[in-house]
Amino acid sequence: MKRSQNLCPRFQYAVGLLSKRWTGLIVKVLLDGPMRYNELAEKLDIVADRVLVERLRELETEGIVVREVYTGSPVRVVYGLTPKGTALSPLIAEIESWAHAWLPEDLATTTASTWEETIRPADAVVDTHLS
């Protein structure tokens, strides 16, 4: 990953990690407490299984998520947040507060294809003369 020499490398790494698609939603759901993979997948029904597994592995590698396997019949796999993951709670809460304050209420009924237009209307002025 390329990094700017003008910004803190830790900040850049954190933003890169947390801005991966679905990562914030996974952390948000796990803030409610540990859950089995199927429960997590059900709550995150818009996330493909392959992507969910990939993100969980990344978060586990980073020490944000812990994966616990309980032997028995049947074998249970439970995912939860580590203290490092739980420390993201204020950040997730602030993002949620910002979203409630600044994003339109009807965003929930907006289709994914029109999200960009909803957040940045077509009539927004974009300065293309920056050099």
Which descriptors would you attach to this protein?
single chain, 7 helices
Characterize the structure shown.
The chain has 131 residues and is mainly alpha-helical. The chain has a domain at 9-87: Arc Repressor Mutant, subunit A. The chain is built from seven helices and three strands. The protein has helices at 9-18, 23-30, 37-43, 49-61, 83-86, 89-102, 115-119; strands spanning 35-36, 65-70, 76-81. It has a three-stranded antiparallel beta sheet. β2 and β3 form a beta hairpin. The longest helix is centred in the last third of the chain and has 14 residues, at 89-102. The protein is globular.
Task: Please sum up the structure shown.
With 131 residues, the chain is mainly alpha-helical. It has a domain of 79 residues: Orthogonal Bundle (Arc Repressor Mutant, subunit A), CATH 1.10.10. It contains seven helices and three strands.
The CA-CA distance between the termini, in Å, is 25 Å
Radius of gyration: 18 Å
Count of alpha/pi helices: 7
Instruction: Calculate the mean pLDDT score and round it.
Output: 87
Q: Under CATH, the topology of the domain at 9-87 is which?
A: Arc Repressor Mutant, subunit A
Spans of at least 5 consecutive residues with low confidence: 121-131
Taken in chain order, the helices and strands follow as: HHEHHEEHHH
**What is the CATH class designation of the domain at 9-87?**
Mainly Alpha
**Which descriptor suits the 3D outline?**
globular
Total beta strands: 3
Strand content: 5-15%
Strand order of the largest sheet: 1-3-2
The biggest beta sheet, please? Answer: 3 strands, antiparallel
Question: What is the CATH superfamily of the domain at 9-87?
Answer: Winged helix-like DNA-binding domain superfamily/Winged helix DNA-binding domain
**What is the name of the CATH architecture of the domain at 9-87?**
Orthogonal Bundle
Structure class = mainly alpha
The residue fraction in helices comes out at 40-55%
